[in-house]
């Protein structure tokens, strides 16, 4: 308590009874806190994370919960664990994308339209996905296709013509055509997008 603020992505030593206060994000919408030794809860399917959509994993954290921490390794923190990660992007964000498996469901020029237009992040954004607003993409084939597997970063287009970018907690299957897929390294940028922020695909 009473210690000066620490910079973004810093390693901090806390003693028993210390409190870590996390302020409001200046950019992005999510904070991540990693604990050396990990959170010591029973893994489900090899993971200790909670998937709210499928209700798989440990129970979501509630106010007043006490989380057990695993034993920290005796060795010092390795340098790779101390390297700062890039802060969430402010302003317009550029995401790399490649054509998806259902490009043929859209009229000619739709891929160029996706890349050529600016898209705005709507308030309908969470860990499942980000719904975008902009000039609707026109489909050649109406309706839905049989549900098929989708990957993180997929750009699924519902009948509205406005893409949905799938993030970490996306469903395993989807029935709308996928026009493109965002590069895996760029999905982390998309996960921090705020409503009203604008993006472009390249």
Automatic annotation (TrEMBL):
Record the organism.
Clavibacter michiganensis subsp. insidiosus
Name the Pfam families for this protein: CT_A_B
Query: This protein is called what?
Result: Biotin-dependent carboxyltransferase
This protein's UniProt keywords: ATP-binding, Hydrolase, Nucleotide-binding, Transferase
* Molecular function terms from GO: ATP binding; hydrolase activity; transferase activity
- Top-rank taxon: Bacteria
Carboxyltransferase domain sequence ranges:
5-202
SMART domains named among the record's database cross-references: AHS2
InterPro entries, per the entry:
CT_A_B, Cyclophilin-like_dom_sf, PxpC
